[in-house]
């Protein structure tokens, strides 16, 4: 992680808060030379603002300023605010430097403390003073290093999660492409058969041949619409060669039966008079139901689910819900990334989330090409 070049609010608010505490302390207690103390603390806090941008300079310089206090203002053992400045400065040397240069800054600070103790502090000093100073310096630096390491790990984890998400999206798009390939291949096969039939009828039954050719035109238009949705060149992952017909809502009874056999109690409401659906919508609706039931089986708290599938002349509506266990029902799983891809590809709408203790998914797929 590199040092950033812009300040944020905390860069200013933390030193400002320390400055307020320091001024209130000195004005209230009025140590000898407290006015100079106020000035030096304000300068130190102002320098501390740049600690994240240039930590070696702006985390070391404030201590150099405060160590002048015994020469102009209160003694080192009188005000307590300089300890706060020291803690923030030492923490910054550990937090914002990627190497061990912060130890060099600490060494400079300790050297200046030693000079002030020997030259400006009339008290007698012994080993306990060394222990006291080290006790002030060591914890902030260690905390800064630990915080830095955790921040780096968090950044790496977020990058890895983004890579996983992108891979999930890519795999789902490839799967969509395979499904769409099956749909388009079926449409073209149907067009070939219908065209051959029209050729046989064109002389003997022109009216019927015209009707067959109209069906060919409709099938062709649907195939063109599906082709426009094809996003990827087909790939053969996990031995999915697409040798079986693409599933659709007509296959829902078998899908529901399979999940019930796996232990999921499903309350199903599927309209019996579903209209003839475009092939791309049909297979995507099946996949969405499949993913919703998979989530209910994996993450539901009591292995129950509700499923409702209805269709109008304008859209197919899929509603699925299950009691949320709080582990995976928040809608953050990679499976829902694939569902989002399918719905977006078809120009539909998708909402999902936990409400009143239940995870709910609602997908709407338009039946008219957007």
UniProtKB/TrEMBL annotation:
Phosphoprotein found in the keyword field: yes
Family matches, as InterPro entries: HATPase_C_sf, Sensor_HK_TwoCompSys, Sig_transdc_His_kin_sub3_dim/P
Segments traversing the membrane: 7-27, 33-49, 103-120, 126-144
Record-annotated Signal transduction histidine kinase subgroup 3 dimerisation and phosphoacceptor domain positions: 172-237
Keywords tagged on the record: ATP-binding, Kinase, Membrane, Nucleotide-binding, Phosphoprotein, Transferase, Transmembrane, Transmembrane helix, Two-component regulatory system
EC category name: transferase
Any single Gene Ontology cellular-component annotation: membrane
Any GO molecular function: ATP binding
Keyword Membrane: yes
PANTHER family with a match to the protein in the record: NITRATE/NITRITE SENSOR PROTEIN NARX-RELATED, NITRATE_NITRITE SENSOR PROTEIN NARQ
UniProt-recorded name of the protein: histidine kinase
Organism name: Nocardioides agariphilus
């Amino acid at each position: 992680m590199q040092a950033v070049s812009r300040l944020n609010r905390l860069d200013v608010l933390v030193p400002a808060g320390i400055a307020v505490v320091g001024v209130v302390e000195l004005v209230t207690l009025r140590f000898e030379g407290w006015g100079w103390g106020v000035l030096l603390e304000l300068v130190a806090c102002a320098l501390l603002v740049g600690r994240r941008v240039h930590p070696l300079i702006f985390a070391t310089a404030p201590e150099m300023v405060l160590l002048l206090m015994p020469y102009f203002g209160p003694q080192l053992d009188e005000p307590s605010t300089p300890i706060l400045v020291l803690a923030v400065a030492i923490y910054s040397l550990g937090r914002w430097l990627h190497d061990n240069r912060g130890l060099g800054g600490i060494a400079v600070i300790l050297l200046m403390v030693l000079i002030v103790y020997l030259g400006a502090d009339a008290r007698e000093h012994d080993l306990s003073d060394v222990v006291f100073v080290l006790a002030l310096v060591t914890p902030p630096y260690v905390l800064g290093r630990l915080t830095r390491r955790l921040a780096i790990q968090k950044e790496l984890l977020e990058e890895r999660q983004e890579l996983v998400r992108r891979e999930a999206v890519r795999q789902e798009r490839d799967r969509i492409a395979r499904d769409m390939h099956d749909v388009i291949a079926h449409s073209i096969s149907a067009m070939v058969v219908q065209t051959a039939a029209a050729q046989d009828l064109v002389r003997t039954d022109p009216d019927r041949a015209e009707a067959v050719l109209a069906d060919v035109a409709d099938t062709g238009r649907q195939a063109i619409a599906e082709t426009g949705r094809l996003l990827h060149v087909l790939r053969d992952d996990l031995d999915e060669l697409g040798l079986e017909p693409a599933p659709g809502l007509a296959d829902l009874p078998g899908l529901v039966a399979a999940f019930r056999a796996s232990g999921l109690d499903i309350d199903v409401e599927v309209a019996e008079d579903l209209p003839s659906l475009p092939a791309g919508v049909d297979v995507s609706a099946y996949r969405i139901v499949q993913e919703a039931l998979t989530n209910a089986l994996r993450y539901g708290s009591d292995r129950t689910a509700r499923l409702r599938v209805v269709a109008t002349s304008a859209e197919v509506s899929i509603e699925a819900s299950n009691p949320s266990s709080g582990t995976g029902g928040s809608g953050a799983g990679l499976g829902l990334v694939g569902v989002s891809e399918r719905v977006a590809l078809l120009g539909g709408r998708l909402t999902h989330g936990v409400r009143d203790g239940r995870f709910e998914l609602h997908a709407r797929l338009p039946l008219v090409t957007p």
